[in-house]
Amino acid sequence: MLRLLTLLVLLLISAVTASPFSPPSPIPLIIWHGLGDKYDSDGIKGVGELANKANPGTFVYNIRLSEDSETDARATFFGNLTEQIQQVCDDLSSHPILSTAPSVNALGFSQGGQFLRGYIQRCNKPPVKNLITFGSQHNGIAKYQSCAPGDWICKAWVALLRGNTWSSYAQSHLVPAQYYRSIDEETGEPSEEYLENSNFLADINNERKVKNKEYAEKLSSLDKFVMYMFEDDTTVIPKESAWFAQTNIASGEVIKLRDRVIYKEDWIGLKKLDEKGGLEFKTTPGGHMQFEDKILLEVFETYFSSKAAGWGGAKEWMQDIIEL
Ligand SMILES: *[C@@H]1O[C@H](CO)[C@@H](O)[C@H](O)[C@H]1NC(C)=O
């Protein structure tokens, strides 16, 4: 009942503020921020404002693990990703507005990109229409980031990660360890310890013997999956992970997604998506997470416009509510 009331109030507000000739409303946008950031940071708020500049009336929800912003920032470093993704699934599927939207668009920054993929593959309620990721680690990381000289907290953190990556402690408590991926440098095959212990990436990329068919079905149901790689990214090692490529950091050899078995045998639906024209590989200048508003505006206009979404907006919402 409370939910219904909230919705009616929201609809009333949008009915009052909408002009009679307004174009169809854009579908909502969910944003998952990166490591060390928080859902209510100025940067993330600014992204939501840009989304509204490009597509006025966009309802934006910044994904969070806690309403308290410090706790939310902490959860980008510490936690069990299985539980974190489940919590986000529960939050979105019970959200008064998002749960009634026929679909949403999704934008992931850095690690938030692969976590959104986790949301899509495991839950997808509400379903994502277009997924855009910037500098994400879809094929994991092969090295932990280097720290600025004198940054002892960072150094202690990286030392903890390095020494314990495959321990059950790290795999259930330290976030980057759960998307660390190591390969046998001779054969290029994923390492045994990775396949055995990875709490997130080996599962979400369906690399184990037993495949989860739902992962491929859900991911290939996207309209578009657009992956941006930062041209001069030195934070993500290897940067080609943003495009699902595998880099052998010993030899420097890069195997592109379309030449990899995850694609050829279509473990997670990327081939199917590609064949229907839904997979895009893009680059953007600069280092990790360095970009101009211009790029984001272009992305929002190209992929998130209400024309691209083809959704009747409030009218359909109203219909859903009447049927409740
Ligand atoms: C992470 O959480 C899930 C769900 O609670 C649990 O089943 C799993 O064992 C945890 N992972 C690790 C590595 O402890």
TrEMBL record:
One Pfam family, short name: Palm_thioest
EC number of this enzyme: 3.1.2.22
PANTHER family in alphabetical order: PALMITOYL-PROTEIN THIOESTERASE 1 (PTHR11247:SF8), PALMITOYL-PROTEIN THIOESTERASE/DOLICHYLDIPHOSPHATASE 1 (PTHR11247)
Family: Belongs to the palmitoyl-protein thioesterase family.
Protein name: Palmitoyl-protein thioesterase 1
Any one GO molecular-function label of the UniProt entry: palmitoyl-(protein) hydrolase activity
Alphabetical keyword list: Disulfide bond, Glycoprotein, Hydrolase, Signal
Entry keyword Disulfide bond: yes
Coiled-coil ranges from the UniProt annotation: none
Family annotation (InterPro entries): AB_hydrolase_fold, Palm_thioest
Organism: Lojkania enalia
Enzyme class: hydrolase
Keyword Flavoprotein tagged: no
Signal peptide range in chain numbering: 1-18
